[in-house]
Fold each of these.
Amino acid sequence: MSFRYLGAIISKTPPTVTAPVDGEGGSASGAWSISSQANYQALGTWPKPPIPKQIWGWGVNTYGQLGLSNTSSYSSPKQVGALTTWSTVSTGDDFSLAIKSGTLWAWGQGSSGQLGLGNTTGYSSPKQVGALTTWYLIVGGASQTLSIKTDGTLWSWGDNADGQLGLGNITGYSSPKQVGALTTWSYLATKGQVAFAIKTDGTLWSWGNNAYGQLGFSNLTYYSSPKQVGALTTWSKVEVSPIFTLAIKTDGTLWSWGRNNNGQLGLGNITNYSSPKQVGALTTWLLATCAGSYSSLAVKTDGTLWSWGQNASGQLGLGNTTNYSSPKQVGALTAWSKIGGSRYAASAIKTDGTLWAWGSNENGKLGLGNTTYYSSPKQVGVLTTWKAVTKGGLNFTVALKQP
């Protein structure tokens, strides 16, 4: 017998497949059980083989957060090392995190133990966090890190002044600590001193700073351990800023809550809300992200790009610097596939693999070879092999690219 993926034939002895973090690859090792083999034989398909990916970085590099073994800032993309085996990358305020073959790596600012290396030292090149090969998902906040392992357990480390590690205390840790004992965590988001997670049952949980109601509990109380947001089991994605939250349900509806002083909730006003409110009535939202603390970006299922909130630096990409409190379409293209952002800036990848950026260009964080601000999307170089771009670095950007 043979198994196929997109026209290619693989071995008749199927290995165990580990689902990819970004949906564009996977890893395989060992042997399948007879039942699993029979299942895939009936299906006649197998997940795509891993796509090789490099890490590239640009922008401010004061703490070595670009991973280039120096502290020089760059206004155009620079490759981090020579490896092509990275699967996912994330950034905190001044540090970076990445996973390759299940191993976890960190670099940049380490003063709060956010690198997970058992110390408070900063590093300007990637350093492995322990020796485990079971890390699955990684996200960075202001000075804290959260991660999910392949067994569905949740781990955290770094600064914990507001209880953002979810450990039931406000003690900081410089090495990974397990959050509870559950093995059902599937999605993570953290920024500022706020953390959110979704379980495999579709429930939404949050903890940490709640000064503006960004945790979604109809109050302003801080929590140091995960607490469920409502009772719904239909949450699909969640993204956070330090002060507001965006989330998408499985029905494609978009919801927001928290601080709204610049209209970043997209509700047509500047009123704060401490519980989820639906943004319009559409059921076609695919992706959403908080671009800094006061702006929002989203992609619909038709590939159109939308933005709202603060726009002083042109970060909404609308060709002006006007604030908007409800979603506005960025151009007319239907080819946007991934979105990212940093403080007062935004970035996105099209379906053709090109990378685009706009907004504040402090320290060259747009990657355009200059420090000029732009109020509409500008292409970063000419490459068509960009795979992912990070959300959250204050004045720097890290991205994954296929060689």
Amino acid sequence: MTSTSSRESASASKSRGQETAKENAAPACTERKLPDGTAVIAAPMRLPAGWNRDEVTVEFVLPIPYPNAQPDCFYTDADLRLAGGAMPTNTGQQMLDGQARLWFSWHLATWTPGVDNIHTYLRFIESRFRDAR
């Protein structure tokens, strides 16, 4: 995976009037700009009991109007499974930026621009992993 430099990322995002992913994300997050104007945020995440791995890379797409619009769904390493080997509920194999990923159809109920951010979304993803099903 490639990531943009902090300066390039800051310039591109601030030109859209947004805080940058680098300014607002956990230190290990990376941001990849896509040709359509969205960005993919990637972050390593420790997994609780109930999964076939201890750690996974999560990715999600920041929509163009972020932070006024929320991210929706997320992706992980394609081989993530429940501890017993079953596929997690509400998942499927999908491509993201040319890579096969495991897609989680998981949606925030509310999003408050100016309050919610990338950290909020990462906590939301962590809550899904605590519910290993």
